[in-house]
Amino acid sequence: MKGRDVMGDELLWKVSEGDSVNLKKYDPAYVASSVKREEADQQLAALGQELGELQELLAAAQHHSILMVLQGMDTSGKDGTISHVFSQVNPQGCTVNSFKVPTPEEAAHDFLWRVHKVAPAKGMLGIFNRSHYEDVLVVRVHNLTSEDVWSRRYKDINHFERLLTENNTIVLKFFLHISQDEQTARLRARTEEKDKAWKISVSDFAERKYWDDYQKAYADALSKCSTKEAPWYIVPANHKWYRNLAIAQTLVETMRSYKDEWKQELEARGREELAALQQLRDRKEVTDL
Ligand code: AMP
Ligand code: MG
């Protein structure tokens, strides 16, 4: 199982293009040795603040968009991640889309139609709670289309994501990796604790018996659709605090690498605007400023 020795300083696992993923080799309860539980909340708060600042630059520069895809088994913490990692981001610069069972209108189109429509515009940070990957996950596990149809979709997905990245969308995909025991514990808590009962979805309980099929479908999706431009990350997600920290850190690091570019973009725009203003002054169309 991949552990400290393999991870180095990395908090999570990036799937390289062409890797053949075996999820059994990744420990869902992993915690990097550099991370201390008692410091994690403070670190997450600091990352949250930096994320807010970077998002402001992203929005002002209007040059890139960011698409963050969250996938994972039921109870893996997709909703929790969104509420904890993005608490300090300006809602104006963010879109969150959840993908459910397709509506009749969605089902009457190709599987990417509903997804492409809500891909983040320039300057926006888009979060997908589930995504186009459901069409090679639940659809495959439950034979909702023939293998002939779903097996072509990996290629379609790669083409689609390439279209996005070629148009300046920074794509990050996170698989929240929990163990079956952890899922059982989380589902049990929902049945035993009154204040968690509202989270019960009967389908989650029914889906449990397909665990192995889902793991296989996930492994295939991660293997076939992790590219240099749109990588998959496997997030050890048994510990909620660690999951939040690992995702926040990865997102912030990625955005940091564009910071100078975004600043230059803004400075160039500032210069253009000042030059345009000077022309108005020269033509005496503005005289008091
Ligand atoms: P939740 O995320 O708990 O609100 O549940 C949404 C449900 O919609 C999950 O059971 C997904 O598997 C299901 N779903 C999402 N996309 C699709 C799809 N393309 N086809 C069938 N079911 C889907
Ligand atoms: Mg659910």
Automatic annotation (TrEMBL):
Protein name according to UniProt: Polyphosphate kinase-2-related domain-containing protein
GO terms (BP aspect): polyphosphate metabolic process
Pfam entry (one): PPK2
InterPro entries attached to this UniProt entry: P-loop_NTPase, Polyphosphate_phosphotransfera, PPK2-rel_1, PPK2-related
Coiled-coil annotated residue ranges, if any: 37-64
Cited PANTHER family: POLYPHOSPHATE:AMP PHOSPHOTRANSFERASE, POLYPHOSPHATE:AMP PHOSPHOTRANSFERASE-RELATED
All residue ranges annotated as the Polyphosphate kinase-2-related domain in the record: 36-258
GO molecular function: polyphosphate kinase activity
Alphabetical keyword list: Coiled coil, Kinase, Transferase
